[in-house]
Amino acid sequence: MIIFEKVNKKFPDGTTALTNLSFEIGDGEFVFLVGPSGAGKTSILRLIIRELSPTSGQITVDEHALTKISGSKITQLRRKIGVVFQDLKLLADRSVFENVALSLWVLGKTKKEVDEQVAEKLALVGLSAKSDFFPAQLSGGELQRVAIARALAGDPKYLLADEPTGNVDDANAWKIVKILDKINKSGITVVMATHNTEIVDTLNKRVLRLEDGHIISDKKGKYH
Ligand SMILES: Nc1ncnc2c1ncn2[C@@H]1O[C@H](COP(=O)(O)OP(=O)(O)OP(=O)(O)O)[C@@H](O)[C@H]1O
Ligand SMILES: [Mg+2]
């Protein structure tokens, strides 16, 4: 469970990103974060993985109180959370397989475990045939799906996706969202920041709508 209690985030340059934000995301939910550019969507995701700290207020992810959390616990926290960043952060000189496998190698998994996990995640995103390709050989939609497979390696409890449909055409956007829906139905809590009104309106999930660092609505259903 993710809990924000009266969270404020002001950056050192004086920009206020979030104001007095309180909400909860329960286990197994699928939540869209929507709102205009600069509303604070990415800031919320960065706070959840403790890449940012709030200026005031409390954030809790399961047993972790993020304002008090120490180094080794941050590692534990991040193992629970798969992230698909807006800029993907794939390694250009590593194959699709290696990009997905990397975090598993770091965890000290055996070759057999890594091979099985990577094969399973690539199958889930429909990229089994591209395992040996390099990022430069893939389309934008395929790159997004590699990033999703990588985020799922290690079987996280949460998946955070920052505009995963931002740079792809409609057909690929739908493909990606269907994969995220399937992932959610397997029990993983999904939080997706998006500008895509059509997808939000069609999926009929919970929509947390932000404007200028405030939550202006929180309800199931449509974008607006
Ligand atoms: N490192 C930073 N330093 C200063 N201001 C920042 C920083 N990161 C974000 N901001 C500001 O915080 C506010 C919220 O930014 P954020 O990236 O969370 O918006 P967003 O909703 O994700 O926007 P977009 O839809 O364009 O991705 C904006 O005013 C932004 O300029
Ligand atoms: Mg953003």
**Structural class category:** alpha/beta
Give the overall shape, derived from the CA principal axes: globular
Order of helices and strands: EEEHEEHEHHHEHEHEE
Number of strands: 10
Short description:
With 224 residues, the chain is of the alpha/beta class.
Structure description:
The protein is an alpha/beta fold and 224 residues long. The chain has helices at 41-48, 71-79, 96-106, 111-124, 140-152, 170-185, 197-203, and strands spanning 2-10, 16-25, 30-34, 56-61, 64-65, 81-84, 158-162, 189-193, 206-211, 214-220. The longest helix has 16 residues, at 170-185. The radius of gyration is 17 Å and the shape is globular. The mean pLDDT is 96.
Keywords, please?
224 residues, alpha/beta, binds magnesium ion, binds adenosine-5'-triphosphate
